[in-house]
Design goal:
Helix content: 55-70%
Order of helices and strands: HHHHHHHHHEEEEHEHHE
Oligomer: single chain
Number of strands: 6
Radius of gyration: 24 Å
Distance between the termini: 33 Å
Largest sheet: 6 strands, mixed
């Protein structure tokens, strides 16, 4: 039922194949974010609680003073909330997004076998900026650098370059696939797009992936990100062109 509703609302207008991918990758975050935004609506509904109480105890006679007090409370509360929302709208929306991100990080991002609790602590100590990107659900679009730095920080695992079936949501360059990078460890993968961990084979199936190359920690340990990019970019670009795949890896800060 939830998936059906998401197809008809949040993912409305998107082709079926892309919807299937989004439901497996980011649906949990979208649901959590929606619930966090409805938090404010729930607070607003509090102003109507007195009406429910009156309905429940309709046989109880209330004095005129009590009735006036109840109505006054409802009006004052409702006006105060609406004015506050108008004044602090941006702050309230920002709070909801931060809350959603924190809940998602604890309930989804940290669950899996690619990254253990100890691994997250190591990343936090070695590379605070990297940890902040992961913890705040902001690593989408930076798979090349995030996975590289993750492997370097943990000194284990590997990074895997794959072509993924393109998620069509916006401008389209006509390519059927796009290049993506995963952090691999213990047969599991950390995916920057969804900020979640999956068994590698499951994620390959979701993305309809073709594997280009896998680089373990030993093969990158003595290289900077810029050195690694400059060394691998020509071969990756050639493979991408042959395999109908978009590839964006010319500048360190360029999104994927």
């Amino acid at each position: 039922m939830i998936k059906y509703l998401m197809r008809k609302t949040i993912y409305k207008g998107i082709d079926r194949e892309t919807q299937d991918m989004l439901l497996q990758l980011i649906a949990r975050y979208d649901v959590i974010e929606f619930l966090c935004f409805t938090f404010w609506a729930d607070i607003y509904v509090i102003s109507f609680i007195p009406l429910f109480i009156i309905e429940m105890f309709e046989d109880v006679e209330l004095s005129m003073t009590t009735q006036i007090a109840i109505v006054a409370f409802m009006i004052i509360y409702a006006v105060f909330f609406l004015v506050s929302f108008k004044v602090f709208k941006i702050a309230m929306i920002g709070f909801s997004k931060l809350l959603a991100g924190r809940i998602y990080f604890l309930a989804c991002t940290k669950k899996g076998e690619a990254l253990s609790k100890k691994d997250f602590e190591t990343i936090k100590q070695v590379n605070k900026e990297l940890y902040a990107f992961i913890a705040t659900h902001n690593c989408r679009g930076y798979c090349y650098s995030i996975c590289f730095e993750m492997c370097k920080a943990l000194k284990k695992g590997s990074i895997e370059f794959i072509s993924t079936k393109k998620i069509k949501m916006g401008k389209d360059d006509g390519k059927a696939f796009t290049m993506h990078v995963l952090y691999i460890n213990n047969g599991w993968a950390f995916d920057t797009y969804s900020s979640r961990q999956y068994p590698v084979e499951k994620l390959h199936k979701i993305y309809k992936a073709k594997v280009y190359k896998v680089f373990d920690y030993d093969s990158i340990r003595d290289k900077s990100y810029d050195e690694f990019r400059d060394e691998q970019e020509p071969g990756l670009a050639k493979w991408s062109a042959i395999n109908d795949c978009s590839m964006f890896w010319k500048q360190k800060k360029e999104k994927t």
